[in-house]
Every structure is written in structure tokens, then in C-alpha cells.
User: What shape does this take?
Amino acid sequence: MAAVKKRKSYLRAEDEHSGAVMKPLVFHVDETTPAVVQSVLLEHGWNKFDKRMQDVEDWNLYWRASSFPMIEHANLRPWQRLNHHPGTAKRTRKDDLAKLLKYMKGVYSTSLYEFIPLTFIMPNNHHKFVVEYYKEKQMLGTKPSYWICKPTELSGGRGIIIFSDIKDLVFDDTYVVQKYICNPFLVGSP
Assistant: This one.
């Protein structure tokens, strides 16, 4: 595996002519922040915030899994950013995004939204999914059809299962079940 070259990332002073010192960028995390996020930031030259060594406001990016209260947004300093923005939950939760895309498909046209796989929100759409599953199973015969089941509130691949037999579909919360795309079109891929 090729070695990753560390790059230095620096916060630019608001006024370069003021003689202000350039500081390395600092990220703040909590126990919910995925390790991959931390490692990518470190690989790109960021420093991890240390509350024992640094002032409480001495960070540039606060990254965590859950959203921030509005007071956190209101108290940000000009050099600080949060990874969750107010009002974006409807676009970042899988079930809400599925509902929004279904609505958009109905409003604007089916052809614009052909890229969306067949989607069901469990447990609400369980009956519709079962009907579609058996209809497709009857059409395909012995050839297996694959489905992907994703928990709505997790990210980074956590809790995802791929199944072809409906007996393997087990959910205890809100999940999105979609027709699995075996050869997806990936942006930026040859």
C-alpha cells in the first residue's frame, strides 16, 4: 500500500497584512465520531483538539454523529464549522430522503428519477415489500434477486444487510429496504 503523504493544513488569518500567525487546523470530535473521519483529517495535516492543552474555542471543525442544538450554531466563532447544518436532517436520514425523492418523482417526472432503486420504508411499507418480493420471485424463478436493508439512523455501513431470501430480513426499528444494484453507475469511475 502506498504511503500517504501528510499535508499541512493551515487556517488563513482574516487579514494577511495584520501579521497574524498561521495556525494548523484543529478538529474537535466526541465518542460518536467514526474513526475513519479522524484518520482522514489527521492524514490531511489537521490536529486533534485536546481540551487539556487548548482553549475551549481553539478548534475549526467539530464533527460528531448527531446533530447540534441551535445554540451551538449561534455561538460559533467565524473560524469554526460544524458537520451538521440546521434543517438538513430531512436530506440525511435514509427514510426521509426516500420520501422526498418519491415526492419529487411524482412532481417532476418519472424519467428524471429513474436512478432511484425500488425503495420501501420498514415497518410501514412491509406489506408492499412482501407483495413486490414475491411478484419478482415468481418472474425470476430460481434466479436470486438481491435486496439491501439499511438502518435509517446509522451511517458508514453499520447495520446493513444484503439478502435474497425474505426469511433473512429482520428489522427492529425503521429501516430502508431497496432493490440491490449489482453494477451501479459510480460518479468518477471509468
User: Anything to note?
Assistant: The first strand starts at residue 10 and ends at 11.
